[in-house]
């Protein structure tokens, strides 16, 4: 056998000792101490993402939030007035002037902003914005009506702007409506503003039909 080959290959390990042949001489050598740990190698590539885990249990319900602010309230003050009878209304002395007032014999009133003094005076007890609509049922002829407001302490009532409506046929009801700011307390009325003499607001259809309302008005305090 080649001695060089023996020197490289003929050795074994037993109980921490190593058999070594050097120039044909057999000897046992003890294993030397472990060398120091080498430096950390570079980080390997990121592995593939594993499958998603199972969905966890639903958490406990959180505490109830604070109560929100109170929203705006609905209408608290309103009135409905109607006439169930026929009535004769005098005309104005000149077109646009204040003629005879419509009277009412049926009322539904809620709140304190509006009250009624028979037969025609609607009392506005609180200043504010008001939505007002009215309807009349005149006989044949040309007629016109408007709202008038008499503020407390004022010398004369004045026409409520944009509340004046009319018709040129008659024998059928027509209506008017307005939203107005009344800046003081006072009295509201529904009046003729045409100068064509007396007219009748009728409470039946065709003179022999069923009874109907001859006039009505709805008032709502908006703010």
Explained architecture:
The protein is mostly beta strands. It has 1 helix and 16 strands. The protein has one helix at about 5-10, and strands at about 15, 15-20, 25-30, 80-85, 85-90, 105-110, 115, 120-125, 130-135, 145-150, 160, 165, 175-180, 185-190, 200, 215-220. The strands form 4 sheets. Strands 7, 8, 10, 11, 12 and 14 form a 6-stranded antiparallel beta sheet that branches. A 5-stranded antiparallel beta sheet has the order 6-4-16-9-13, with no helix packed on it. A 3-stranded antiparallel beta sheet has the order 1-2-3. Strand 10 (about 145-150) and strand 11 (about 160) form a beta hairpin. The longest helix is centred in the N-terminal third of the chain and has 7 residues, at about 5-10. It is rod-shaped, with a radius of gyration of 52 Å. Mean pLDDT is about 90; it is low at about 1-15.
**Shape call:** rod-shaped
Q: Helix tally?
A: 1
Number of strands: 16
Proportion of residues in extended strands: 35-45%
> Roughly how much helix do the residues carry, as a percent range?
under 10%
Low-confidence stretches: 2-14
Region (Disordered): 27-65
InterPro entries: Collagen (IPR008160), Tumour_necrosis_fac-like_dom (IPR008983)
Biased composition (Low complexity): 45-65
Protein name: Collagen-like protein
């Amino acid at each position: 056998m080649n001695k060089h080959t023996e020197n490289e290959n003929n050795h074994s390990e037993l109980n921490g000792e190593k058999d070594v042949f050097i120039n044909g001489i057999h000897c046992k050598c003890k294993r030397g101490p472990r060398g120091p740990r080498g430096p950390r190698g570079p980080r390997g590539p990121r592995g593939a993402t594993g499958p998603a885990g199972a969905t966890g249990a639903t958490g406990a319900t959180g505490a109830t939030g604070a109560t929100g602010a109170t929203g705006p309230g609905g209408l608290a003050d309103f009135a409905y007035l109607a006439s169930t009878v026929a009535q004769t209304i005098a005309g104005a002395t000149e077109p646009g002037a204040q003629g005879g007032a419509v009277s009412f014999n049926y009322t539904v009133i809620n709140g304190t902003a509006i009250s009624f003094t028979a037969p025609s005076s609607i009392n506005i007890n609180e200043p504010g914005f008001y939505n007002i609509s009215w309807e009349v049922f005149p006989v044949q002829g040309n007629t016109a009506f408007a709202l008038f407001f008499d503020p407390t302490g004022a010398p004369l009532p004045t026409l409520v702007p944009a509340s004046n409506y009319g018709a040129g046929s008659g024998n059928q009801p027509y209506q008017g409506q307005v939203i107005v700011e009344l800046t003081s307390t006072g009295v509201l009325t529904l009046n003729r503003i045409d100068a064509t003499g007396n007219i009748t607001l009728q409470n039946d259809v065709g003179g022999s039909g069923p009874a109907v309302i001859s006039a009505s008005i709805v008032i709502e305090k908006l703010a």
